[in-house]
Recover the amino acids of this structure.
């Protein structure tokens, strides 16, 4: 037998590559159409509402979507609660609904933070987790819990303030070193990996010296969980996300200029890039640290959520920000539902489930970028 013609093989490979590139360009043109993006946002919002309703029905106590909406109507507008519906109403409004809403709000906040960081640093591998912000916030929260002997609980302002302060301090350190040393983004990511390991080790040290009353609360941060979600947690995380989202959206065009053209071109357009970068990074850190202070370290949502959204709706931050919030919220919500059911009655913490999903996508991003270079 003779070997295949190498010239013909090369031509076939070139033709296949050209066909793939043509298909990719065709999809990008269709994706960048404003009508498609508008439809995608509306569809994403509708899917989010339906998914939340369905996830609330999942559990040992049988519940239907109609039961969920009836409970929401009674909760919001009031009315007569039927005696035979009281137990179901209590299960839905006290346990399942706040858990689902907290998971969605936390996922949306982390994904928004990831979109902003990736745009400002012009790298899809950046997220609150990979830069060490989330582990730092978890250390701050764990330290507050240890110092108060567990009395602070997960919703104490001391815990939130400690998580936020630590995260802001680490962010200032990372950005300061990046600016002073003129670091490339790859070096910045390596610095983030080092800080992640450092704060994870410090959190482990706190666990080592903690007593039984505080150890369980600290371990929660290392796993990431929305177990025992309460309405005040939903209100705080949701309020921070809802308030900061329009602020981020207001600067979407400036963010586009930095992400697509670079700092010099953005400055030529009249954008104060250092102020923009510091301000938006502070808002992104605020989103991540408040979420971590209630839900613990949940890695990869800030990485995977924006990546999925970018594939569907493109890189224009006017659309990527809202769609990224939806994809991040759905990702964490579905991960929590899987964790509740896959080993029922045991509950797998949502941070573990997300890691199983996020790690392969993170590896794929690294390999894709290397192949592109």
């Amino acid at each position: 037998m003779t070997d295949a013609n190498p010239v013909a093989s090369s031509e076939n490979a070139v033709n296949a590559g050209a066909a793939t590139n043509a298909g990719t360009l065709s999809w990008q043109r269709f994706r960048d159409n404003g009508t498609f993006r508008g439809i995608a946002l509306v569809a994403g919002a509708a899917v989010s509402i339906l998914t939340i309703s369905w996830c609330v029905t999942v559990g040992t106590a049988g519940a239907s979507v109609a039961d969920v909406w009836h409970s929401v109507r009674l909760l919001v507008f009031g009315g007569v609660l039927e005696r035979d519906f009281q137990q179901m109403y209590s299960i839905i409004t006290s346990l399942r609904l706040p858990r689902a809403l907290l998971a969605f709000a936390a996922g949306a906040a982390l994904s928004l933070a990831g979109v902003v960081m990736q745009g400002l640093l012009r790298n899809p591998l950046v997220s609150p987790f990979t830069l060490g912000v989330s582990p730092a916030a978890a250390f701050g929260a764990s330290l507050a819990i240890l110092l108060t002997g567990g009395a602070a609980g997960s919703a104490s302002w001391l815990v939130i303030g400690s998580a936020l302060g630590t995260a802001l301090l680490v962010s200032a350190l990372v950005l300061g070193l990046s600016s002073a040393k003129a670091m490339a983004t790859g070096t910045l990511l390596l610095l983030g990996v080092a800080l992640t390991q450092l704060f994870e080790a410090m959190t482990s040290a706190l666990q080592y010296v903690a007593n039984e009353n505080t150890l369980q609360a600290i371990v929660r941060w290392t796993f990431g969980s929305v177990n025992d979600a309460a309405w005040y947690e939903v209100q705080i995380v949701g309020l921070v996300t809802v308030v900061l989202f329009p602020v981020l959206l207001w600067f979407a065009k400036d963010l586009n200029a930095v992400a697509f053209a670079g700092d010099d071109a953005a400055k030529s357009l009249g954008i104060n890039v250092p102020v923009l970068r510091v301000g938006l990074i502070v808002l992104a850190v605020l989103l991540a640290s408040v979420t971590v202070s209630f839900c613990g370290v949940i890695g990869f949502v800030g990485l995977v959520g924006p990546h999925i959204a970018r594939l569907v709706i493109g890189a224009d931050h006017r659309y990527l920000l809202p769609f990224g919030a939806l994809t991040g919220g759905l990702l964490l919500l579905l991960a929590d539902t899987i964790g509740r059911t896959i080993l029922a009655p045991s509950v797998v913490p949502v941070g573990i489930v997300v890691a199983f999903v996020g790690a392969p996508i993170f590896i794929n991003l690294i390999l894709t970028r290397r192949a592109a270079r």
In short: The domain at 100-372 is CATH 1.10.3470.10 (ABC transporter involved in vitamin B12 uptake, BtuC). The mean pLDDT is 81. The chain is about 80% helix and 0% strand. Residues 86-121 form the longest helix (36 residues).
